[in-house]
Amino acid sequence: MGSIADNIGGVTRRIQKATKAANRPPESVRLLAVSKRKPPEDIRAAAAAGQLSFGENYVQEALEKMAALADLRNLEWHFIGPIQSNKTRDIAAHFDWVHSVDRLKIARRLSDQRPESKPPLNICLQVNVDNEDTKAGATLTSIPQLAEDVIQLPGLRLRGLMAIPDPDQSEASLRESFRALATALNQLREANPDAEGLDTLSMGMSDDMETAIEEGATIVRVGTALFGARDS
């Protein structure tokens, strides 16, 4: 692995190449640096290289990093891990985005606990796009009703959908999973024409971002290619 700055440059070039191949503008895809299990110093180095959006999976770990990096006021924090009910207050208070909402109970708690001094919390609904028994996420068939309910919550702003497809499937099957998520988002837009900001497909990681971008990803979540392998 090179330096974090070099790695950011390399991933950015991969995104630019993939968007060009898909006839999309480069700015249509955002890089979310997955910084879980990485120290604040790594985030600081990434920020110095121009990367300002970071994804965290564990609330307490993220809060400690936020405190350590409080002098960097332009960072954008995304929660991308499973959400426990007893963690929603901290998530609602400290994050800018949440990618992993998969049930209405959690959405209601996040809305109710979002401080009035902050703008609505940006939300993606997590979809278990491959119907894996061990993976979190709502089913594709339940997404329309869940989205309709979430749109009504005043503390939230529904932005789109997120998925983590099975990485062990063939490339053709992986592409089908990404395509199914993109289709679901298009259907949400058609069903909710008055909803503002249904513009986000959070899909694709270090090993499959090119395929995800070809199928419409607007946020790719990349950790290993930026920071190297993590402990867990």
From TrEMBL:
Its cofactor is pyridoxal 5'-phosphate. The keyword Lyase does not apply. GO terms for molecular function: pyridoxal phosphate binding. Residues 13-230 form the Alanine racemase N-terminal domain. InterPro entries: Ala_racemase_N, PLP-binding_barrel, PyrdxlP_homeostasis. CDD domains: PLPDE_III_Yggs_like. Keywords: Pyridoxal phosphate. It holds the Pfam family Ala_racemase_N. Belongs to the pyridoxal phosphate-binding protein YggS/PROSC family. NCBIfam families: YggS family pyridoxal phosphate-dependent enzyme (TIGR00044). PANTHER family: PROLINE SYNTHETASE CO-TRANSCRIBED BACTERIAL HOMOLOG PROTEIN, PYRIDOXAL PHOSPHATE HOMEOSTASIS PROTEIN. Pyridoxal 5'-phosphate (PLP)-binding protein, which is involved in PLP homeostasis. This is Pyridoxal phosphate homeostasis protein.
